[in-house]
Amino acid sequence: MQTANLLPLILVLALVAYGLAYMRSRAVAAPLGGIRNLKALPFYYAARASLWCGIPALIVLAAWVGFEGRVIQGIVLATLPPELIPTSPGQASLTLSQISNVAAGKLNPDFVPEGIAGAASLLETLRSNSATFKTVLVLLIAVLGGTFAWFRVMPQVNARVSVEATLRRIFFVCAAVAVLTTVGIVFSVILETIRFFGKVSFVDFFFGANWSPQTALRADQVGADGSFGMIPLFTGTLLISAIALLVAVPVGLLSAIYLSEYANKKVRAIAKPLLEMLSGVPTVVYGFFAALTVAPFIRDLAETIGLEASSQSALAAGLVMGIMIIPFVSSLSDDVINAVPQTLRDGSLALGATQSETMKNVIFPAALPGIMGGILLAASRAIGETMIVVMAAGLAANLTANPLETVTTVTVQIATLLVGDQEFDSAKTLAAFALGLMLFIVTLILNVIALKIVRKYREQYD
Amino acid sequence: MSINQNIPNVAEKPNEAPMTKQAAALAVEAKREDIIVEEGKTVGLPYSDNPKFKLRNVEVFYGEDRAIKDISLDIARNEVISFIGPSGCGKSTFLRCLNRMNDSIDICRVKGQLMLDDVDIYHSKRDVVELRARIGMVFQKPNPFPKSIYDNVAYGPRIHGLANRKSDLDEIVENSLRKAGLWNEVKDRLDATATGMSGGQQQRLCIARAIAVSPEVILMDEPCSALDPIATAKVEELIAEMSESYTIVIVTHSMQQAARVSHRTAYFHLGHLVEVNETDKVFTSPEHELTESYITGRFG
Questions:
Q1: Same domain, B24 and B119
Q2: Side by side, which strands form the sheet with B51-62?
Q3: CATH number of the domain bearing residue B49
Q4: Which of A338, A326, A334, A248 is nearest to A280 (CA)?
Q5: Using one digit for the tens of pLDDT, what is the confidence trace for B24-37?
Q6: Regarding predicted confidence, which is higher, B12 or A271?
Q7: A352, B160 contact by CB (below 8 A)
Q8: What secondary structure letter does DSSP report for B148?
Q9: CA nearest B195 in A: which residue?
Q10: CA atoms within 13 A of residue B96's CA, in its CB half-sphere
Q11: Which end of chain A lies in a sparser environment, N or C, as judged by fewer CB atoms within 10 Å?
């Protein structure tokens, strides 16, 4: 049976086990004078039965599915005639795909060597046997598990404890999946980064002021020196993020203060969702807006006051990105400002402080950790933003602090390095992983700083 | 108006049992109307020859709800007056009218004449900042700012520009803490954060903070309800000392506290000011039936 069909079947069996164990627990309890004479409620006996039925069967199924393919391949390869046994991993995968193509009927068996055709029929037999064994084994385990738990429905057995313990393990596994995924991503990026530094020197990457990742395809190619200095990319990222924060922090913070302290309920009920909608606009729309409206406007404006401006500028990208991240600052700040106890406001107002003095001297300091958290979250978002920069700031890696010039960012370069057909062992593609790792480290540091700040000041009031 | 609040009166009339529920409720309503003969008629001594506050026909509305019903009262200079009454009777609302703390509640409206030294508190051109600088307030729950002890006391003087030099400010802080009986406990840790103090110390710090701006009146909204008996005793001692230089209005749930600290006592009931009199008189021979029921513990 197919795995996809086995899963619902196990679920049905688990439900059956639940029902049967539930009825049995009530039946066991009846002569004793009711369910209060059981060690646990009927629900726990039933839940334990369905766990016993489902979990071992699922584990065996997962293991089987995980190893089935490799074991079968090993057997097939081992039974090939000596002259066909592959000598390298590349050859092995070629042979295997040939065999499975024959088995799937995509390749006529007459066109391949005798041994391959034999292996193909063996492969098919093994696969169907494996499917049968898997079905029988998994269902048997499910039924055995359920039956065992059904027999263990006894008044003196405390099912509650084991159900709680199992649930705890299930929750742990879920948490572990998230953590392990992160670790896995970081690990794979680190591996590729190490390969990158095998091709490009450390010093060139970290201190090089020139970014031009075109590597030569042929030995006689000119104009493709392949320099991988990350400095222009990070300065570009910092420049655009700084402009974005210069827009988002004052506007976001002041609008949060207005919404939480000054606006009446009606205004707040309308304005807050509208403001939060800003972060729901797709970034590609922002990019469009930045490239077609803001950037030309800035260029024209700069020209009228006699400044040289490129038609794609850091300023345009930064301004639009700033608008995009306003809700990160305003929404979080609004929440933390509202969380400051009313008694503090009353205390300050009763001393004759004005509303703005109260805001500045009492509420803002008390809400500062949360506000910082919101700002750093917005900063992480700005650093990671790609689409707006691609469309509005350009691709040229200029090392400049002039916001009217075109710059590029780390994320944009990662995207362009990996777009299209690429060979995955050239310095050009590997550079994307090195940049990704650097970016990850930078945002990680920002997050750690945010957490530290929040933790340090959290217990100030209450 | 909730009928439940009148149930204690029903208990006094068990012989009216055969009536239907609704009729009983109506009877209770009528009975209550009997007791408070007329709105705005307060028994005892509500007026004074030397008033600090002159309050006439005050009404407070929360939206459609009438929380304070036609109250007239004088609060004399340098007296301690306590407001007592069952929960929800409007005594805190009334107190918060005196320094316009109700302003920050959107749906709250205040009517009537409220005069501080013969100047209208609720005049549209009245500067609330100046008003609140003259009327200090201490709240139910100690609410020190999350700052150092020094900065808490210095907060008011700083925003009102009461000190030109650091040494002046130091002096104000020290004097205020001394008056609040806190100086000896905190003089070595003025830079420590105020939220680390005990509840009683925090409340006395709030009192020090209030008197640091040299107010003329201090409003106290159940200042001891979150404190243990020893801390309460200290605050009460402080109130007695402060009564020499300030007019003090204190809302309290503790009748013993009202009896211990105040010169006059005002009894509130469902938004009405029922009786105001010398504290001794209120607790020994109340003039009004409702006051008597309350102080003898029949409801509240």
A1: no
A2: B65-76, B51-62, B108-116, B119-120
A3: 3.40.50.300
A4: A326
A5: 555 554 455 455 44
A6: A271
A7: yes
A8: B
A9: A461
A10: 23
A11: C
Domain range summary for chain A, segments of one domain joined by +: 3-157, 227-460
- Does B27 share its domain with B90? no
Do B145 and A347 make contact, defined as CB atoms within 8 angstroms? yes
- Whether residue B159 and residue A461 make contact (CB cut-off 8 A), yes or no, is no
CA distance to partner chain B, nearest, from residue A214 (Å): 57
Q: Cβ contact (<8 Å) for A361 and B159?
A: yes
Both tokens of B300, joined, read 């509240």
The answer to whether B101 contacts A349, with C-beta atoms less than 8 Å apart, is yes
pLDDT average per 10 residues of sequence, chain A (462 residues): 83 93 89 83 91 92 90 85 78 83 80 80 88 92 92 86 92 95 93 89 84 70 71 89 93 92 87 86 89 89 84 87 90 89 91 90 86 86 86 80 84 85 77 90 85 69 53
Chain B residues near residue A262 by CB distance under 8 angstroms: none
The reply to whether A265 touches chain B by the CB within 8 Å rule is yes
B58 in the same domain as B102: yes
Nearest to B145 among A352, A354, A362 (CB): A362
Residue A439: closest CA among A251, A241, A264, A169: A241
The 10 Å CB-count burial string (b at 16+, else e) for A109-123 is eeebeebbbbbbebb
Classify strands B247-251 and B217-221 as parallel, antiparallel or unpaired.
parallel
Q: Is B300 a domain residue?
A: no
Q: Is A266 on the interface with B (CB under 8 A)?
A: no
Domain that holds residue B27: 1-35
User: Do A48 and A18 meet the contact criterion of CB atoms below 8 Å apart?
Assistant: no
Assess whether B2 and B54 both reside in one domain. Answer: no
Q: Which residue in the set B128, B145, B210 is minimally distant from A344, CB to CB?
A: B145
* Chain A residues near residue B101 by CB distance under 8 angstroms: 346, 349-350
For residue A353, give how far its alpha carbon lies from the nearest alpha carbon of chain B (Å).
6
Domain identity same for B51 and B166: yes
Examine the predicted complex and report whether its ipTM is higher than 0.95. no
pTM (2 decimals)?
0.72
Say if B49 falls within a structural domain: yes
CATH class, range A227-460:
mainly alpha
Minimum-distance CB partner of B139 among A264, A347, A365: A347
Chain B residues in contact with A366 (beta carbon < 8 A)? 145-146
Res B35: pLDDT: 53
Least CB–CB distance from B143: residue in A343, A352, A365 = A343
CB B136 within 8 Å of CB A350: yes
Tally of domains within chain B: 2
* Chain B residues with CB-CB distance to A350 below 8 A: 99, 101, 132, 136-137, 139, 210
Question: What residues have CB less than 8 Å from B286, skipping those under 6 apart?
Answer: B267, B275, B277, B292, B295
- Residue B203 belongs to some domain of the structure: yes
Q: What is the pLDDT of residues B205-223, one digit of tens each?
A: 999 999 999 899 999 998 8
Residue B115 within a domain: yes
Please tell me whether residues B7 and B139 are part of one structural domain.
no
Structure token digits, residue B45: 């001594």
Residues B154 and B223 in one domain: yes
Q: How far apart are the first and last CA of chain A?
A: 61
Q: Are residues B6 and B154 in the same domain?
A: no
User: Quick check: A361 contacting B, CB < 8 Å?
Assistant: yes
Q: How is residue A430 written in tokens?
A: 């590997």
